[in-house]
Predict the 3D structure of the following.
Amino acid sequence: MSAPDAPATTTPGPRRRTPIWAVLTIALGALLMATSATAVVGGKLLIDRYTGRIQQQDLLAGAAKVSQEQKQEGEALDGPITMLLLGVDERGSRPGEMGSDTIIILHVPATHDQAYLVSVPRDTWVEAPAFEPSGYPGGESKITDVFRAGSRNGVGRAGGAQLVALTLNDLTGIEFDGAAIIDFGGFRDIIDALGGVRMCVDQRVKSQHMRLVDGEPTWLAEARELGGGEELWHEEGCKRMAGWEALDYSRQRYGLPNGDYDRQRHQRQLLKAMVQEASSTGVLTNPAKIDRVITAAGKAFVLDTGGVPIADFVFTLRGITANDLIMVKTNGGEFNPAGFSSTAAERLTPESMAMFDAVRTGTLDDYLLANPDAVQRE
C-alpha cells in the first residue's frame, strides 16, 4: 500500500456546480451532461445515447408512487423525490440468489436543492410480505436476507429489489419514485474510469475480502488457492484510491468501533467522493474519460425511474452539487440490538422511525432542523 498523500492546500474559489449527470451516476446509474436548462435541451442526444446502455427493469412493484400525469420532457418533476439504492455482490453467492449488503434511501426534498443519503442497516430485523414470484411465503429476517429471498427461483435481482421495496414500504410507508441496483464489480470499474477517487481513512482496518499476493491485491478465495498471501490493511490518512481499494475500504465493518455504522458512513463518503470526482475539471474537459465512465456505469446499474423520462430527472435535479449531498445517521449511528440471543439483529429506534416518516411525508428538512445530531459530520 502506498503512503497517503499529503493534505492538499486549496484556495477558496467560486462554487462549482456539480453536473446532474454526476449525481445520477449514484442515483440512477448514468452520467448525463447537463448543467443548466439550456444544457438539458442541448444534451438530449447525449441523454438518449447513454441511457440506452442502462438496463431498465421494474424494481419497485407495489412500492412505487402513483404515477403523475406525464409531463413534456425537459420539465421539472413536482414534489419530493425518493430513490431506493441497493448494492449487490454476486461473488460467493449461491446459484440463483444473492444478498444486498448496502441499502440506501436517496431523498430529494420538494425544493430540489439538496439530496439526503439515509442508510438502512443491513441487520435491521423486518417482517417481509409473501412474494409469489420467488415462492417466498413471508416472514421475519434481516433485511439483507430479504433481497436474497426475493431473488430465488430464477427471479433474480429485480425480484430481490421488489421484495426489499415492499418490505420497506410496509415498515415505513415510504413509496419510491425509482430505484437502482448497483453491482459492486461495476462500481469499481466506474471509479477506475474516473481515474480514482480521493478518500480519507479515519480508522485503520484490515480487509476481510482481500489479501496481498506478491504485493498485488487479490480476492480472499483466490489468495487462499495461491498460498494465503499477506493481510491487507487500510492505513489511516488521505490518499487517492483506485476502484478496488476504495470499494474494499468502504465495505469493511469487522474491526471497526461501530461496525456496520462505520461501514455505512464510509460508503456514503465514497458516494460523495465519486460525485466530487465526476464534477472535476479533469472529467468535464475530457470527452474520452466521460465516455469511459458512462460506459462503465451502463454495465454497473439496473435502473427503474417509474416510467419518468430520465431527461425529466436531469432537469429537476440540475442544481444539486456535491456539497448539497447530506449524509444522515440511522439509529444515531449506533447498533440497537433486537434482543435476540441467537442472531446479531437490530431494530430501528423510535427516533429513526420518525425520521423515515419525515422522508415519507417530505418533511425531512424540518426533522433534521429539530434533530441536528442525525446529520453525519464528516
In short: The chain has a mean pLDDT of 79. Residues 20-374 form a domain with the Aminopeptidase fold (CATH 3.40.630.190).
